[in-house]
Design a protein that fits this description.
Its EC number is 2.3.1.-. This protein is an alpha/beta fold. The chain has eleven helices and eleven strands. It has one domain.
Length: 352
């Protein structure tokens, strides 16, 4: 394989963007695994004092998660959701945010977000790491990104996730956020915000397995839990689509029923996590590595679908709203694909 090296004369701004990307990817990879090794090292080899401190910390993490679902109210630490590092991370691709309709701050929202891709980059940047553009387009609406519940039991990492506005996708956490008062005078809204918008990557780990450049394959036909949650809490559903999400990383070929896919499905059934093997670029080359490729991602936020609140959602009504979500996504893809996807004539939307 011929290696394509990055030219020496790369502009300094692009070098800073690559540094930001590499730093964040490496840091998260190291922290995700390193935190467990650190805890184990302290428990096995630390002094009595350090072992005691670690046990107290682990008990606190578990108890706090059970009591509060690890939710940080408000917008978290704003300095950690709008800074130099994350702005360069955004500009690396770049990631854009497009508004097509108003989101009035007098109600709460579930953003049904597609596609998942390998990393869920578009939604994570716009509604998690760098929320400056979101706050300009949707004032008074707090952006939140839902992720796997077990992530908030990971030592050290949970603190970062909370500070970035990430929340558990558990039923209890979603109900807590989506039933928050929209009254400006309520104590929960002293920060000037009166609405919560929780983004859910509905396709999840299963959809990530189908992520390959140019292939927009959504896992949605049998995913109705988010619709039921919206109806139970009276939250509007906002379909969102991140064009280009699947193009920033490829993965090792894993067609259905292949040995690789069977192994991935097995691990996913046990852990809820898909063991993906991403294929990207390197820091100094464009041919191989773990960094995403520079491909534009455009997250289009659709119009809200209002629902009638009901503690016991009727199956027929759930199906009706679910179909409307699918219809809106198909219309969104058809309307914007030529604008935001290069060579879009070959790209089709497939919904499983």
């Amino acid at each position: 394989m011929k290696i394509e090296w990055a030219p020496i004369g790369v502009p300094m701004e692009r070098r800073r963007q690559t540094f930001a990307m590499a730093f964040l990817i490496l840091s998260f990879m190291i922290l995700s695994f390193g935190s467990y090794f650190f805890v184990a090292a302290v428990l096995f080899y630390g002094s009595v004092l350090w072992r005691t401190i670690m046990v107290i910390y682990l008990v606190y993490v578990y108890a706090n998660h059970r009591r509060t679902h690890s939710i940080m109210d408000g917008n978290g630490w704003k300095i950690n959701r709008n800074n130099w590092l994350f702005r360069h991370y955004r500009d690396y691709f770049p990631v854009q945010l497009v508004k097509t309709a108003e989101l009035p701050p007098n109600k709460n929202y579930i953003l049904a977000s597609f596609p998942h891709g390998i990393l869920g980059t578009g939604i994570s940047i716009n509604m998690g790491l760098d929320i400056s553009k979101w706050l300009k387009l949707f004032p008074q609406v707090r952006p939140k990104v839902a992720t796997l519940d077990q992530n908030f039991l990971t030592p050290i990492v949970r603190g970062l996730l909370r500070s970035w506005g990430l929340v558990s996708v558990s039923k209890e956490a979603l109900v807590y956020l989506l039933t928050k008062s929209n009254d400006p005078k309520h104590n929960d809204n002293r920060d000037g915000f009166t609405s919560n918008a929780v983004a859910i990557l509905v396709g999840g780990a299963q959809e990530a397995l189908d992520s390959h450049p140019g292939k927009y394959i959504l896992t949605l036909k049998n995913r109705k839990g988010f619709v039921k949650m919206a109806i139970r809490t009276g939250s509007s559903i906002v379909p969102t689509f991140s064009f280009g999400e699947v193009d920033i990383l490829d993965q090792v070929a894993n067609p259905p029923n292949s040995p690789v896919r069977r192994f991935q499905d097995f691990v996913k059934r046990i852990t809820g996590i898909s063991p993906l093997i991403p294929v990207g670029r390197g820091i100094f080359n464009y041919s191989f590595g773990f960094l995403p490729n520079r491909r534009r991602i455009v997250q289009v936020v659709g119009a809200p679908i209002d629902v009638v609140q009901n503690d016991q959602p009727d199956a027929a009504y759930v199906d009706k709203i679910h179909k409307q979500v699918i219809d809106d996504l198909e219309k969104m893809f058809a309307k914007y694909k030529d604008q935001y996807i290069p060579n879009s004539k070959q790209d089709k939307l497939i919904i499983h």
